């Protein structure tokens, strides 16, 4: 019993001694090396994101569906309408093709009437992302 008491006392003393020491486990600096293309891609993404203004502008949605058909619709639209911006937006579970970036509703509706000839399901939207 005395032996157990002394051993317990020694282990407690050693535990306090080790726990009270200052630790230096997080002092080293980590250097992360990255591919130079990463920065280039990031800058391109920032440029694209800054060019997409969607808060105060009107757009026309000409397609809503799967990925392949949305890509086909976008390519066909861009061939016929080189002066109007167009993009694919993913909103679960469908892909949407948005065209235009109109400042006023009147301008957007004028273009909508023209686009409805080829895309009868097209409609006007004002995204709020």
From TrEMBL:
SUPFAM superfamilies: Sporulation related repeat. Residues 52-129 form the SPOR domain. InterPro entries: SPOR-like_dom (IPR007730), SPOR-like_sf (IPR036680). One of its GO terms (molecular function) is peptidoglycan binding. PROSITE patterns: SPOR. This is SPOR domain-containing protein. It comes from Flavobacterium rivulicola.
